[in-house]
Amino acid sequence: MHKSWESGCAEAARLLAGARKALALTGAGISVPSGIPDFRSPGGLWTRFDPMRVATAQALRNNPVAVWEFMAAAMDLFGQARPNPAHAALAGLERRGLLAGVVTQNIDGLHQAAGSRRVVEYHGSAERYSCTGCGLSLDRAAMPGLLARGVPPRCPECGRPVRPDVVFFGEGIPVEAVEETEELLAGADLALIVGTSGEVAPANAIPLRVARTGGAVVEINLGPTAFGDLADVRLDAPAEVVLPRILELLPD
What we know:
The protein contains 10 helices and 9 strands. It has 252 residues and is of the alpha/beta class. The protein has 2 domains: 1-36 and 84-123 and 174-252, Rossmann fold (3-Layer(aba) Sandwich); 38-80 and 128-166, 2-Layer Sandwich (SIR2/SIRT2 'Small Domain'), CATH 3.30.1600. The strands form 2 sheets. It has a 6-stranded parallel sheet with strand order 3-2-1-7-8-9, with helices on both faces. α1 packs across α10 and α5 (85-95) runs parallel beside α10.
């Protein structure tokens, strides 16, 4: 543990211990140590695929082959990833009753794999797929077999195209995710920001809403972000290092 991080971890632990209701907002940065590069960073999926060609609602309708080439690469990447200590620490905070839930912009399913129970997947999940016709739900394990029969994959019940349950550019946040986020925000007096630059709306408004009602904000990010000086405590440090330390510093 870097000496300069210790006091920040202690203050973050103090704020968490004193909060009535805390929620976390996570982004791509929390999954980088698990082997999933930020889509926009070197080695990320957007260096291999043009998001406007493979991740828009229009592409899903007009260019399904390109969309599914991208999804196959994403599924392969996510399938090899495992939760890291940052994911585990958030699950530990929830088990101790110190975190009401996690709102994540990630689609990799690693929070659930780490043991987090209440996870709002703001941008959907690459673990789930659904038929555009009859609405049949399918999991990721079903996709290789369907893709082997052709692209786009077809529903085994009605034969209509299947789509990933992720939010593409040009699509709205699912109503269920918005409603559950509002439930978590109701009465929240601490927002924990982990691994997100704060550049993507509307998720970036979540910590601001907590701060506007007098709540505290703890930010754990590497490098500058769009949150500016919003945080009461800001740790420019690896989440997989400092989050477990914060958990250790909490009183029993």
